[in-house]
């Protein structure tokens, strides 16, 4: 049995990009099948007026309807009449996708460098607050209108990136110069970020016109604008320009990994740290630099959460950073794969709302259903990553000249 498991693990490690996609698709279908059975059986213990009667037992939940709402509801029910591309369901899906791309890239950069950044949530929190405060105070001296849009949005994103990067550099420095475990430090810094930002907010930046813990709103012209004619309504809190920026950043990180000396050193440090050190890579500098870049990406996610979704910083920041860990694992830490994984998460989160409004299925069961899909799809890639990190040296594949593994294509 042990030899069989080792053989399966080695097969996952050596799987090509196409094989990994096919495995994920097969896992998705398996999750749908298992989840459908779970939904159907759970319906037998629910109370309803109408349902499917089998052997004197009434089953209240229809798995087909649940999956219809989960996957097509997230797109705004495109098979129904009167469907429009700029509908609320699709806007919600793409909004979550955009934010999760930033969070997933943040985690993926650290993972590719051989580091476990569990602190993207904290970096997103401090970056979002820095963005809101910077834009609110800069708006007092920057002209409004088009000039304000052009100046304040990049300024806000830059502020979020700088502060998020600084916050990510802290565990990087502790790891590089104090040999502190980055998992522990980043987890602890998440709590520090929550407490410090709440204190700073109440001390200096609380909106005097609101009882809710939040900053003053940024000017309307400083929010991410919508594209004319083809853009979504401003009430949907989503902009195609934000998605375009996220995709461009995703491609840029992929190019950084594949075509630059920094990306080569980063990937080599993660795959073969001994070889990287032998080749002259400064391990301490790379640790700090990769964690700084990871934190900056998390801070950018916080900036877009402020400038696209709420127009202000709120104390109850959603768990985008923690979702980014699952997005990165599902994508195999590939920057391009992060986009597809983020879209799947966006569909599940948006579709879960559609299930809640279109069926009688309780939200707890919807959460289990979404969790099953994520678990089934992510586990093969998770075990592949474990195999890459912990398999015996004798089974390692030779490294390519670009720092990747032989027979394995990540981008």
TrEMBL record:
Keywords: Cell membrane, Membrane, Transmembrane, Transmembrane helix. It is a multi-pass membrane protein. The chain crosses the membrane at residues 21-46, 98-118, 124-142, 149-170, 182-203, 238-258, 288-308, 320-345, 365-383. One of its GO terms (cellular component) is plasma membrane. The keyword Transmembrane applies. It is found in: Cell membrane. It comes from the Archaea. One of its GO terms (molecular function) is transmembrane transporter activity. Its main location: membrane. The keyword Membrane applies. This is ABC transporter permease. It comes from Natrinema salsiterrestre.
